[in-house]
């Protein structure tokens, strides 16, 4: 069986059953009961870009082993995958085994195409930082990447709603963490450069406050976690850009994972407001007739 990602399996399963192997982390494991009060285990399995649910019935040979799995476990699931109309991606005639340390590390790094995209994004971030004209902001970004760059590259933006994967970016919340982290870094680098920066315009204290306002206001409203609403054009623009990026990611992930309801229509993906509808296909003009006659 070929080793595939969950996304590759899901796409292939649209055309029928797919024999495959997939490497995943156990995202959650919960004991449950059927309507007849028979025990079973429900596992949520995830790789770098996708997730699926595996229901392990009590009469399955692997029931006892699967019931003992925790979120610290990494496994290979091999079997025959198909797409159920109601429950999404499912596996039949399956087996599981623990991943080796090498396989676990490769899984955590993500598939090659994702690593390539993230590498290009990381290079772009570095180039953008070096293009910042204000030496205070450039030094702050350099200090951030030097101290937190490795963790930043592998941290997810959220656990469920959007970019919930390695490199997609939480007890305090990322806004509070961001405010504290950036303010601490600013104080440190400013103390080291206060003499060189004392005559820069705008004043350094104004730069610090406006930067913290961008972080604090980027969710837009208190109900979404922002302690303050956007009060500058830059803060409002950042809020809408961040929200647009998050919601488009929800659409993209929803087309892959959401339950199909009809042709081009999928079940709701929270927090989007309604059922998903597939985008209109890209326009393609009709090719001219082979005999050269006009239409």
Give a structural overview.
Helix 4 packs antiparallel against helix 5, helix 5 runs antiparallel to helix 6 and helix 6 runs antiparallel to helix 7. Strands 1, 2, 3, 4, 5 and 6 form a 6-stranded mixed sheet that branches. This protein has a 3-stranded antiparallel sheet with strand order 7-8-9, with helices on one face. Strand 5 (74-84) and strand 6 form a beta hairpin. It contains 8 helices and 9 strands. The longest helix has 25 residues, at 233-257. The N and C termini lie far apart (50 Å). The protein has 295 residues and is α+β, with helices and mostly antiparallel strands. The chain has helices at 6-12, 63-67, 101-109, 112-130, 135-154, 174-197, 204-217, 233-257, and strands at residues 2-3, 18-33, 39-46, 51-57, 74-84, 88-98, 260-262, 265-266, 276-277. The protein is globular.
Helix content: 40-55%
Helix and strand pattern: EHEEEHEEHHHHHHEEE
Q: What fraction of residues sit in β-strands?
A: 15-25%
Rounded radius of gyration (Å)? 24 Å
- Strand elements, count: 9
Q: CA-to-CA gap between the ends? A: 50 Å
Structural class: alpha+beta
Overall 3D form? globular
Largest sheet: 6 strands, mixed
Low-confidence stretches are 161-169
Mean pLDDT: 87
How many DSSP H or I helices? 8
What structural keywords apply?
alpha+beta, three-stranded antiparallel sheet, 42% helix, 295 residues, single chain
In short:
The protein contains 8 helices and 9 strands. By secondary structure, it is of the alpha+beta class. The strands form 2 sheets. Strands 1, 2, 3, 4, 5 and 6 form a 6-stranded mixed β-sheet that branches. Strands 7-8-9 form a 3-stranded antiparallel β-sheet, covered by helices on one side.
